[in-house]
Design goal:
The structure holds two protein chains of two kinds. Chain A contains nine helices and 25 strands. Chain A is α+β, with helices and mostly antiparallel strands. The termini of chain B are far apart. The chains are: A alpha+beta, B alpha+beta.
């Protein structure tokens, strides 16, 4: 679709909103292509391309928001969509005590193309399938597999944004995600090992040391073999070394969500009204950033046209900020942080994370293990969950015992749980190696919008005590 | 009238997609069309979020011999449909063949469509907001323990159609109305959360949801630590039991993962997997259930499948791809994942698993134990369990200690460790109190032995 044609449509929608009485209008266009290859048991189970194209209109009247959307890229359809958005905004006007109001901002005209050496769209299907084949072959060299899975996912395209301030913003999202999994039989059950890489980068990424499909597949096979010999995780409170990927999930799921300003402003978050308080240990610094030096997801603008930057949420244990959209920033008399995001044009943008991570420290992995002494090393995770009461649970899908300052025996699946503020208070050291990633298969879920690409990760962190649910 | 007009439209689009395919010399194709009206209003302490729109899209599979490509687009514009066909065809031509592919379905006679409530299609946003206002009033109470309540009400109505070049052209319609309340309470520095919800194919009476959610969150304040690790029976309220069994059977009944050798129950067909009083059927024809459809996502007629009889596993669930590979037919269990559906390939999933009720209700089961743990709400971590091994370790944030047949006090979060599939053999009671839930499986209260509880 021609960019100028779409820009014209978006402006028409904004103008029409004003004609109908809206105080402020935002119009967003997504044109995204998503490609999936599922290579299960050395057969192509799925090979697909999805075209996600359409326009979403957010209108405000007397501070009341209303959203609608359409895949029909024609003026009449846009007018009808704008009317529908305004209709529902008017319906809820009487209920509002929180009036959406933006701090005035000058017109922004920007165009950011994320340039990479080898764009995934320029690489043929066969080459991507070949990568999965090589990864799976390496996994099979490590363990006698019963079953294997190779997954490739990529997302790229264009986003356009126009609003009542006459801003026009264009940028180009991009990410890929490769996963290899191996499954083997043990005497009594099955064991699974997996590894993967997800980044907003070009295909040249796979030429980096340790990032090639062969290494990913070898890791998956090795982790699977370890699981065939794993022992039950020791239950109860343990000292732990939490690996970068699990630290990222913790930073995101537990602390990150509690920092989202919609939960904060309504008082639903346990960290509402607590800026300036020492909530964590001095080792805990948590950051949310749009474009990072460590990789992850490339996000130059949010879906309200705010340029993303670096937002420090916790600085050496002290709560210093929240994740804002324009309305909550105005209400709390602070700067917006570029965290208003929507998964597709079919949804309104809401406060979401960008790339969330613990700031790296200075410990090597050996020093971290030595500090733990006896406990567990939670290296890999299959995800987790957190509630607005501050409770969290994260699954350790790859872990090891730490005995007398050394990583020893692999452990079976275990759950790490507790209260997030207790956990952050228990951090007694932070590693120096960073691992930040994004994902196509999975992502952030909130308000029915799943999976939104975000970045997460961090260094390894040492915690003095966490509840481990083992046997 | 509106719904039948929508049916005509999606059938017409499906047929048109196949006509375009023919014009492009594509011999074998399947088109899945969906159009759904979505209206939702969310409210949290004076802050609202509203959405009102029409989801519409098409997912097309094209087969070139035994090579299948899948592509999708939003909307029904002719150019988009044509480029989607081109994309799916290109993928099919370029990929390796899958010798197991046996074609799309040829004929299908739609089964029973669930109840359609035209009042939902006529419900305007003002009326929906009135429903919300009722819940806002319920949660507007003068009690310092209440931190706040998130409320959502909404409607969905529409349908989907499936057409294949083999001669299938069928559709199914649905209507739904729902409300949810999520409450956060606080007392002595401790937070507690709870929720209640209602969903159905007709306009629901949402009154009471707010009060229930608030009372549940208050009930859990004043929790004490368990302080030990125990192996004692766990009593699961119907909602929580349904979540546990839905997770178990959504994975364990998938005939596709049986074929792919990834299913923990793959060697258990015709074997005892549960206690003898365990009877389970998959029934996609119950008119009141929001999951009931006339056809599945491949166009196959939806019916009823016997799953577990007297504790013996009698069948897995199949779609039209994996059924023939296993040596059987599709059981009408192809579904496409939410929220967009058309963007996803068919995947095997239960329509509605119904567990035959037993004899004791919740209170009677609690009364039967000297010491047990009672679990309410949604424990954390269920969805992140290792479904290859079946091992789980979850955290129950709404659990209570039961002693001498009575609930003694709420517990601080406890971890519960066990194995989904081993749990089935350790069910001590199946309740007499099933509830209507939008889950793949509807259970009554369950008491299960053998879990390790720590906290």
């Amino acid at each position: 679709m021609e960019k100028d044609y779409v820009l014209d449509l978006l402006h028409k929608a904004v103008d029409h909103g004003h004609k109908l009485g809206a105080d402020f209008v935002e119009a967003r266009y997504d044109d995204l292509t998503l490609t999936t290859i599922n290579y299960t048991n050395e057969q192509v189970k799925e090979s697909s391309t999805k075209q996600r194209r359409g326009i979403g209109i957010m209108t405000y009247i007397n501070g009341s928001p209303g959203y609608s959307f359409t895949p029909i890229l024609e003026t009449d359809a846009l007018k009808e969509t704008t009317k529908r958005a305004l209709g529902i905004a008017k319906s809820t006007e009487s209920l509002l005590t929180f009036k959406h109001k933006y701090t005035d901002r000058p017109t922004i005209k920007d165009s950011i193309e994320h340039k990479v050496k080898i764009h995934p769209k320029d690489v043929e299907f066969e080459e991507k399938l070949e990568m999965l084949k090589r990864g799976v072959a390496c996994a099979k060299e490590q363990v006698d597999t019963q079953s294997t899975v190779g997954l490739w996912g990529e997302l790229w395209g264009n986003k356009l944004f126009v609003n009542s301030e006459q801003s026009e913003i264009y940028w180009t999202p991009l990410l890929f995600d490769i996963r290899i999994a191996a499954i083997a039989m043990t005497e009594t059950t099955q064991a699974r090992g997996s590894d993967g890489e997800g980044q907003s980068q070009g295909m040249e990424f796979f030429k980096l040391k340790g990032k090639d499909p062969e290494t990913i597949g070898t890791n998956a096979g090795t982790y699977c073999k370890e699981q065939t010999e794993a022992v039950a995780a020791p239950g109860g409170k343990q000292r732990a070394l939490v690996g970068p990927r699990m630290a990222g999930v913790l930073a995101h799921e537990s602390f990150g969500h509690l920092s989202e300003s919609d939960f904060v402003i309504t008082g639903m978050s346990p960290i509402s009204d607590r800026v300036g308080e020492q909530l964590g240990s001095e080792h805990a610094t948590i950051i949310d950033e749009g474009i990072t030096e460590y990789g992850g997801f490339f996000l130059p603008y949010d879906d309200q046209g705010t340029k993303t930057g670096k937002t420090v949420l916790m600085d050496k244990g002290m709560l210093v900020g929240y994740l804002h959209d324009r309305s909550t920033a105005n209400k709390m008399n602070t700067e917006t942080t570029g965290n208003s995001r929507a998964i597709t044009f079919m949804y309104p943008s809401i406060p979401r994370m960008k790339n969330t991570y613990f700031k790296p420290g200075d410990l090597s992995i050996e020093e971290s293990v030595e500090i733990v002494g006896d406990g567990i090393y939670a290296a890999g995770t299959s995800g987790g969950q957190a509630g607005l009461d501050g409770a969290f649970l994260f699954k350790c899908s790859r872990g090891y015992l730490i005995e007398k300052g050394e990583i020893t025996t692999p452990i079976k699946d275990a759950a790490l749980s507790g209260q997030i503020l207790d956990f952050i208070n228990q951090i007694s050291g932070v590693g120096k190696e960073m691992d930040l990633f994004t994902s196509y298969f999975g992502g952030c879920g909130k308000g029915g919008q799943y999976p939104l690409p975000v970045g997460l990760g961090g260094p390894s962190i040492v915690v003095d005590e966490v509840l481990v649910g083992g046997e | 009238m509106v719904l039948e007009k929508l049916r005509s439209e999606i059938l017409e689009v499906a047929d048109l997609a196949l006509k375009y395919a023919k014009d492009m010399s594509i011999q074998t194709a399947e088109a899945y069309i969906i159009k759904n009206s979505l209206t939702e209003v969310k409210y949290s302490k004076g802050k609202t979020e509203c959405r009102d729109g029409m989801l519409q899209g098409i997912g097309i599979r094209v087969a070139e011999g035994k090579k299948v490509g899948f592509a999708t687009c939003a909307g029904f514009a002719a150019d988009s449909i044509k480029s989607t066909l081109v994309n799916a065809h290109k993928i099919a031509k370029n990929r390796p063949e899958d010798p197991r592919f046996s074609g799309f379905i040829s004929e299908s006679k739609p089964g029973k469509e669930g109840i359609l409530d035209t009042n939902i299609t006529e419900l305007d946003s003002e009326t929906l907001v009135d429903h919300l206002v009722g819940l806002v009033k319920e949660t507007d109470i003068d009690d310092q323990r209440l931190v706040g309540a998130d409320i959502e009400v909404g409607t969905q109505w529409g349908g989907f159609a499936v057409a294949t070049t083999e001669g299938c052209l069928v559709s199914s319609l649905n209507t739904a109305h729902y409300g949810t309340v999520y409450s956060v309470a606080m007392g002595q520095g401790e937070r507690s959360t709870a929720f209640d919800f209602k969903v159905g194919r007709t306009i629901q009476d949402l009154s009471g949801l707010g009060t229930n959610a608030i009372n549940k969150s208050f009930k859990h304040l004043g929790s004490k630590p368990l302080g030990e690790s125990l192996k004692i029976p766990t009593i699961w309220e119907p909602l929580t039991a349904s979540m546990l069994l839905s997770t178990t059977f959504q994975v364990g009944l998938n005939g596709g993962t049986v074929v792919e050798r990834q299913n923990p129950l793959m060697h258990k067909l015709n074997e005892q997997i549960a206690s003898k009083d365990f009877q389970l059927n998959d029934d996609g024809t119950i008119p009141t259930k929001i999951s009931s459809e006339a056809i599945d996502a491949e166009g196959t007629t939806i019916g009823k499948t016997e799953i577990v009889k007297d504790g013996v596993l009698k069948s897995f669930l199949f779609d039209n791809f994996y059924g023939p590979i296993f040596g059987t037919k599709s059981t009408g269990n192809a579904q496409r994942n939410e929220p967009t559906r058309y963007e996803n390939m068919p995947a095997i999933s239960p329509n509605k698993l119904v567990l035959q009720p037993g004899t004791k209700n919740l209170n009677e089961q609690i009364a039967a134990y000297d010491k047990a743990i009672f679990i309410e709400g949604f424990p954390m971590g269920m969805g992140h369990s290792n479904m290859i091994t079946g091992d789980f370790s979850i955290t129950a944030t709404n659990a209570y200690l039961v002693e001498k047949g009575e609930i003694v006090h709420p517990l601080k979060p406890v971890s519960i460790a066990g194995n989904f599939f081993e749990s089935l053999m350790k069910i001590q009671h199946i309740g007499s109190d099933p509830v209507d839930l939008p889950f793949p499986l509807e259970s009554s209260t369950l008491t299960i032995d053998g879990h390790t509880i720590s906290g």
